[in-house]
Specification:
By secondary structure, the chain is an alpha/beta fold. The chain has ten helices and twelve strands. A five-stranded mixed β-sheet has the order 4-3-5-12-6, with helices on one face. It has a five-stranded mixed β-sheet with strand order 9-8-10-7-11, sandwiched between helices.
């Protein structure tokens, strides 16, 4: 049995639009092509079918009898495709969205604000997957992720969330205690707390020309949230991320004793597949996060 051939989709789209408007010009405007392109598509479809679809009478464009019958069928087929697509998009805007992200960003930023997204989008449930390996967050069972880095991940849509600043943070009790913090050199009198490594403190001291402060001592924590907690408990001074520390600063558990802030080379990014960024629940969650960031900039 010979294989049945279908007309080219672009030719059918051009025919359906031209049949609705009875105008190649208006069809071209809708399809964002030239009038000549529409005319070429219609001619190709007529050649494919072996049937004349349009005629011109008194400078008006009319469908032939065969063209009118074919147009009604094609119009219904396109209407069904549009309806099916809308139904699928509606399904994609509901259900569960899985978000993979570093544990500290989850606890310090997302979780405190999550109720706002739930109120805005009650049909979408958020599944939070807190993991440590940033670069492998966007796995097959994950819809979107939060990466921490430079923003150069080929093939992925990456929206920068915040510019990160690093600055010393401590409990208010340390500010005017036995060893007050009046200038940067006073850091030498306190225990320095480290987030993953000692390198950030070293870079910060170099940035602001601080001499004589030992940075090769003090506990090292695997998560930013832990180093902030230790600082809030008065165990020392953390070099905190301004974004992640905002809940503690707002609550008065942490203060920034100095105005010096170093811009971090890394930032948090909202990441998803390029093709998914504008679809359904992913688009809704992405728009909500980016709106939150804009509203919270300081």
């Amino acid at each position: 049995m010979p294989t049945k051939r279908l007309p080219p989709l672009n030719s059918l789209k051009a025919f359906e639009a031209a049949g609705r408007y009875l105008s190649f010009t208006k069809a071209a405007e809708e399809l964002f092509v030239t009038q000549a392109a529409v005319s070429h598509q219609i001619k190709g479809l007529e050649d494919f079918l072996g049937i004349k679809l349009f005629v011109r009478k008194n400078r008006a464009l009319l469908l032939t009898e065969e063209g009118q019958s074919y147009f009604l069928d094609i119009r219904d087929i396109f209407a069904n495709i549009y309806e099916a697509t809308d139904r699928l998009a509606a399904m994609g805007s509901k259900g569960t969205i899985t978000v993979a992200l570093p544990a500290s960003f989850a606890s310090q930023w997302l979780v405190p604000r999550l109720h706002q997204f739930t109120e805005a989008c009650p049909d979408i449930d958020v599944r939070i997957k807190a993991v440590d390996d940033d670069e492998s967050l966007l796995s097959s069972d994950v819809d979107v992720a939060i990466y921490y880095g430079l923003g150069n991940w080929p093939g992925l849509k990456a929206d920068k969330l915040h510019t990160e600043y690093l600055t010393p943070m401590c409990s208010p009790l340390l500010l005017n205690g036995d060893k007050p913090l009046r200038n940067l050199q006073d850091l030498a009198n306190h225990n320095l707390l480290h987030d993953e490594s000692r390198e950030p403190w070293k870079s910060w001291m170099k940035e602001f020309g601080v001499k004589g402060v030992t940075v090769n001592k003090g506990p090292i924590f695997s998560h930013s949230a832990l180093v902030l907690q230790a600082a809030a408990l008065g165990q020392g001074i953390a070099l905190g991320h301004t974004v992640l520390a905002r809940p503690e600063i707002s609550a008065g558990r942490l203060i920034c004793p100095f105005k010096e802030r170093m811009v971090s080379k890394n930032s948090y990014y909202f990441v998803c597949e390029e093709s998914q960024a504008e679809l359904g629940k992913i688009a809704a969650f992405r728009e909500w996060m980016l709106t939150q960031v804009i509203e919270e900039q300081f």
